[in-house]
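Handout, tutorial session.
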Amino acid sequence: MKTKNTHSVKKFMLGASLLMLVLSGCSSIPAKSPNNLIGKQESGKASYYAMKYQFRTTASGDRYNHFADTAAHRTLPFGTKVRVTNIANNKSVVVKINDRGPFIDGRIIDLSRSAFGEIADLDVGIIEVTTEVIR
């Protein structure tokens, strides 16, 4: 015999499942940034993700991979390609935005470990950069 409580739980689970299905269909990652963002530049500090974030899910749904050239930005659309240039040595790397952050004042972008390593010594930890949206 099924109780009233069992039916309520099943209805709740069905409703929650439908809501998750609908919400997952609302998320999209653009192939490129809107044209009005191309050329947008910022200057500030960049840091990189700690090793503890390896394989964790990013805000875009991707798994963080410290070997991929990816980054976190507070507002740029997921999938945006950004050239990040180290002001001290003029080295650049192109990264894809797939996460949100950084959430520390003064920082404008968090780079993957390998992307940071392409333009600076990992031991430095934080560098002054310029960023430019390229697509």
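The second record follows below. Compare its token runs with those of the first.
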Amino acid sequence: MVLNFLKPTYCVQSVYDLSVDELKKNGIKAVLTDLDNTLLAWNNPEGTPELHEWLKETKASGIDVIVVSNNTWDRVKKAVGGLDVDYVAWSLKPLPRGILKVLHDRDLNKDDVLMVGDQMLTDVWASHLAGVPSVLVKRLIESDMWQTWLNRFIENQAKKMIYKKDGPVFYDSFEKAVQAKED
């Protein structure tokens, strides 16, 4: 199908559903994640207690969390300042530039990482172009930054086409998403 490049490898409710045990079981060494509405709600720059706990557990287990964002360096630096995570800004998603930079700089294989994001047109497409598994999450809040409205409109049309052919996407735990993919 023409839209296969927009189909995520996995779908989970949120980045917090990526448990350390399941990540390790699947050989994941780094979680690459979008910033706005994936890791942080764009209007909540401090993040939630749940986010801070997930980051603490993930990092303590030896799994890196790296933000791959289309935002400016200043914006991303400010947003992740209190999170103690590395980042790549101006990644130009859907181009794979940011993802490939992380793979190269950290000497990671494509199967060692997951790219997590809330948008098919940027995050999922970029992961396909980079050859890494993608995880589509529900956006943290329904409202988006003003720049995102066109992407959301196009994405909704693409989802309708994908769902018509393949059925709806179910957001689940990572363990169940991996199992469903294997079945």
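Points raised in discussion: Residues 10 and 135 are 5 Å apart (CA to CA).
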